[in-house]
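Progress against Task 2.4 (sequence-to-structure conversion) is shown through the following example record, which the project officer requested during the mid-term review.
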Amino acid sequence: MPNSIASETAKNGSKKEKGEERSKLRNAFARRATLEELRILVAVAECRSFKLVADTFHLSPPAVSKKVARIEELLGAPIVRRRKQGVIGLTDWGEMLIGRAREVLEKFDAMAALVGAPSRHTRLHVGLQADMTGPLFLEGVAELNQALPTTQLSVTASLSEQLIGGLGNREFDVALLTVLETASASTMKAMPACDWTELAVEPLCWVANRRLSLADLDSVPLALHPDGCVFRNAARLALSAINKSHWVAFNGDVHSVRGAVQRGIGIGVMRRADCGDEGVILSAEDGFPPLQNVHLLRAVRRDVQDRDAADRVAQVLEAAWRRSNPPLAESQV
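Structure tokens generated for the chain above:
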């Protein structure tokens, strides 16, 4: 008889705990815990790492920790056991609640699949070469916002070296960037976590103001982009190879460098297609060595959350780039 009473007491205790568990989860939803927070909570339980979950959801580790803490506050009970380095496990309440959270997410995803809707927004981080910000190209970015309404795009225009570093640090999911011809193969080989596509090979040229007298120059004044820009690297490598004296007379972004060249402040390096009629193109006859070609590369990280969306973004951006950069005429090559 005593054993029977103990067994019944244990059953009642178990039912009470499950009832409290359901009540806490209902209270969390009533106080507006979001689906993203639940997904993060489940991911933390599985990975036992704020850092890994932060990388997956494109957040910082402190932001992930705060989201978990918010759910704990809503539930009125601790879920994870923490230490300075991160998560060491789940509390007893956490073990029970994680199962319920998974059920909620599975039911929501199943319902979303029935109506043909995606279960959540996808956030993609896109890195673009700093000079890819012309009107025609930006129209392509605008097209993406309309074509992928459930994809949240975060676009950053930066320099080649920063884009390459960002891909390596998982700051970007998709990137369009240029590298020097001698660095193209090594760049792609150094990042096997990305799928690379070479889109174009473009010639560079020296450009100067028509009124600039080259004969009077003991040292070449350059109008260059900041450190990390492929055009700057091409210029300095070419001049150093022939020991030609030079100095940086102007340092600025794409548009200000163009203005500095047009006003004779310095000699610049541009894509052959961007030179137009504003200046004169310099050659070996003027004492300027040939410049390396640049290779336009497209990169998509293989571990991206939504590969279909990432591929769509990459394709639209490539098409936008081609619209804004028509092929050179034979006389220009």
